[in-house]
Design goal:
The protein is mostly helical. It has one domain (2-49). It contains 2 helices and no strands. The chain has helices at 2-18, 24-49. The two termini are 18 Å apart.
Length: 50
């Protein structure tokens, strides 16, 4: 959790520098969708594992 608070903004910053202005919204939307999906799947997966 703590690394996500630092890691995700850093990842967004690094990736946004690699994408041109016209695709910034698509990139940020994709990252938000990925974050939401992992917030749902992660607990289910790790509950089953442990």
């Amino acid at each position: 959790l703590a690394s996500g608070g630092i890691g995700m903004p850093a990842l967004q910053a690094m990736l946004s520098r690699q994408v041109d202005e016209e695709r910034q919204g698509q990139l940020q939307g994709s990252l938000a969708a990925l974050t939401s999906l992992t917030s749902i799947v992660g607990p289910l997966l790790f509950t089953a594992i442990y």
